Automatic annotation (TrEMBL):
Alphabetized CDD domains for the sequence: CESA_CelA_like (cd06421)
InterPro entries in the record: Glyco_trans_2-like, Glycosyltr_2/OpgH_subfam, Nucleotide-diphossugar_trans
Biased composition (Basic and acidic residues): 636-645
Protein name per UniProt: Cellulose synthase (UDP-forming)
SUPFAM superfamilies in UniProt: Nucleotide-diphospho-sugar transferases
Pfam (any one): Glyco_trans_2_3
Positions of transmembrane segments: 39-58, 64-85, 367-386, 406-424, 481-501, 507-528
GO function term, MF aspect, one: glycosyltransferase activity
Localization terms from the record: Membrane
GO cellular component, one term: membrane
Keyword Nuclease listed: no
């Protein structure tokens, strides 16, 4: 099927238009399938060796500098492990993928729950996600859930009804004490997913983050793997992002770095059956999750922890290099710093979890997981060690500073200009500014890990008051660290040059001065109030008010009207089994049956849904009760959805 590049959703608002992603096009869908290019990674390996060689040569100059060699294992191990990981052919080719789809036999029992966890994201972004999720095509019953963990917003409830979602909101915690299981705030996103899993009962569960727009064929491209490989517990697909000139360097660079991961690193991990679960654009097998006691109960990184937890039960995660959903990359200082700090801290937590130690990994798989841990360690170490060679030579061994000393760096410079742009779209030298920001986040996260501290979870795309406040969270802490570090390093660098130039002349120090100027260009914007991050102003055609969105919205409205005239409020006819406590399918004997319908086009009366009979009327129990209903104007949950406090 064909999917265009521009499909968005309009909204009436006095605010500035907001960028919303279209589902990936047919060309983008298959863009991560490519022939192996081992020479690329060989060049990167040689580049890393050149930089390490220069570092070692400086460290052995004097007994006073020799202790710098202590960090060498942290820097070398990721280089070796990543080169080993990437030196093998991918596990899956496009031809093999197409063969899996051909062999799939549609099963009416392949019911699907779709979970969209949200927490304060902009309404146009949520609307775009809901509309594209509602357009997913599948032959078996589908239930859609909007899992709201943010502040109450009437527009969100109305949107759930319009697009056919069950609106689920955990009950509020009692003021004055920590949230408990089933209450909003308990384990943040992990708790939200655990709650949704207990309320639903499809054979498979699909998760989309609140800012992703999936293609209509998402289920057709992923669920067949569950039939083809019975021990597959998770099918993870790529995260894909637009990368355009109008975006600021944070949004462009974040998209490029994610492309490197999902285009090159995940397939390399998948060779050893060590792909990680990324938490969105992912399919779970309910039997697998239930067999290990549900999703991981962790404050951060519920996705990768749940993937590892499934390994303890003998289930594996399979990665498909398909771009089946497109998201919104972080574009602000707060968004990128919260995201990177959270990812690094969750990696630290994973290393200490019992399910990681108990997982049935072979040594190659365990090494692949350690590679991610070592990457964060090396990233943090690079921030602290990168200035060491230049400053040491300039201040203590100025007579040894010669232009040809920089020759070992030449492969790395060529990789920056030629190799990395071949690996990801939108790669520009400014991406190293973003890498420095990421390194600062990783330093903060590792410091938290050493103190056994867990930073409060903040959604990447949230616009809630909590996300905007300037309390001492990751954004402010990273800002203080980086600005202090930039000032100290630049003062030492340029004062050293000013001191040595009169004595040794530009003929000797020109290479040092040139690289210092390039470095200043990279880091100076971090001292500005905006960190050099200009507001992204998208062209109209890629916003929530673009013409393509208007057309998609009109088509959706027409579909709703036609369905309402037919008095059909559901995605599929009722199957042979029901969610009534006495009539549930034996495979889904779940302790929390769900009988609330999910809206779709406004149903006439209480039409039966794909999961059984219509809901019973809601009743009031407590203002703190959980809420799970198909739309607005029902402030109280049906009594069969209330959970014991």
């Amino acid at each position: 099927m064909g999917v265009g590049r521009r499909q968005h959703a309009p909204v009436e608002s006095d605010e500035a238009p907001i960028y919303v992603p279209a589902p990936p096009s047919d060309e983008e869908k298959y863009s991560y399938f490519q022939k192996p290019k081992p020479w690329i990674f060989a060049w990167i390996f040689v580049s890393a060796l050149g930089i390490l060689y220069g570092y070692v040569m400086v460290a052995v100059k004097s007994p006073l500098t020799t202790p710098a060699l202590l960090v060498l294992p942290i820097m070398v191990m990721p280089v070796l492990v990543n080169f080993w990981l990437r030196s093998h052919r991918p596990r899956l080719t496009l031809e093999q993928h197409q063969e899996v789809l051909r062999r799939y036999r549609p099963d009416p029992a392949d019911t699907v729950d779709i979970w969209v966890p949200i927490c304060g994201e902009p309404i146009p972004v949520l609307r775009n996600t809901c509309r594209t999720v509602a357009a997913l095509e599948w032959h078996a019953p589908v239930m859609r859930y909007l899992l709201d963990d943010g502040d109450p917003r009437r527009e969100v409830e109305e949107m759930a009804l319009e697009f056919g979602f069950v609106y689920v909101r955990r009950r509020d915690a009692v003021p004055g004490r920590e949230p408990r299981e089933g209450e909003r705030g308990w384990l943040k996103k992990a708790g939200n997913m655990i709650n949704a899993f207990e309320l639903s009962m499809g054979r498979f569960g699909v998760v989309f983050d609140a800012d992703f727009a999936p293609r209509p064929d998402f289920l057709k491209e992923t669920v067949p793997y569950m039939q083809a490989y019975p021990r597959t517990g998770i099918v993870q697909t790529a995260q894909y992002f637009d990368i355009s000139p109008w975006m600021n360097y944070v949004q462009r660079g974040a998209g490029s770095l994610q492309e490197v991961f999902f285009r090159w690193i995940q397939p390399a991990r998948d060779v050893w059956r060590a792909a990680i679960c990324a938490g969105t654009n992912v399919v779970y097998r309910r039997d697998a999750v239930e067999s290990v006691g549900g999703f991981a109960r962790v404050p951060l990184g519920e996705d990768v922890n749940s993937g590892v937890k499934l390994w303890t039960g003998g289930w594996e995660t399979r990665y498909l290099p398909l771009a089946l959903a497109k998201g919104v990359a972080p574009d602000t200082w707060g968004a990128i710093t919260n995201q990177q700090q959270r990812w690094c801290r969750s990696s630290m937590l994973l290393m200490t979890e019992k399910h990681f130690r108990d997982a049935k990994f072979n040594w190659q798989q365990r090494m692949a997981f350690w590679a991610a841990f070592l990457y964060y360690m090396a990233s943090a170490g690079l921030l602290l060690t990168a200035p060491f060679p230049t400053l040491t030579m300039l201040w203590f061994f100025p007579d040894k500073v010669l232009p040809h000393n920089y020759l070992p760096m030449l492969p790395a410079l060529l990789a920056t200009l030629l190799i990395f742009p071949m690996m990801a779209r939108g790669w520009r030298p400014e991406i190293f500014r973003l890498c420095m920001i990421n390194s600062g986040c990783h330093v903060i996260a590792i410091g938290d890990a050493l103190r056994a501290k867990v930073q409060e979870w903040v959604p990447t795309g949230a616009v809630t008051k909590a996300a905007k406040t300037k309390k001492k969270g990751a954004p402010e802490r990273v800002s203080r660290l980086l600005r202090t570090w930039v000032i100290v390093v630049q003062v030492l660098l340029w004062s050293g040059l000013a001191l040595r130039l009169p004595e040794y002349g530009i003929g000797t120090l020109w290479a040092t001065a040139l690289l210092a100027a390039v470095q200043l260009y990279m880091v100076a914007p971090l001292l500005l109030p905006s960190y050099g991050i200009r507001p992204s102003t998208p062209p109209l055609e890629v916003t929530d008010r673009g013409p393509a969105v208007a057309a998609a919205e009109r088509a959706w409205s027409a579909t709703r009207s036609a369905a309402a005239q037919r008095q059909v409020g559901w995605d599929a006819p009722p199957p042979a089994w029901s969610t009534h406590p006495d009539q549930r399918h034996p495979r889904h004997n779940h302790p929390h049956p769900v009988q609330a319908h999910h809206g779709g086009p406004p149903p006439v009366g209480h039409a039966p849904g794909p999961y059984g009979p219509a809901p019973r009327p809601p009743v009031r129990r407590s203002p703190h009760d959980a809420v799970a209903y198909p739309g607005p104007h029902q402030p109280d949950p049906p009594h069969h959805l209330e959970r014991a406090r």
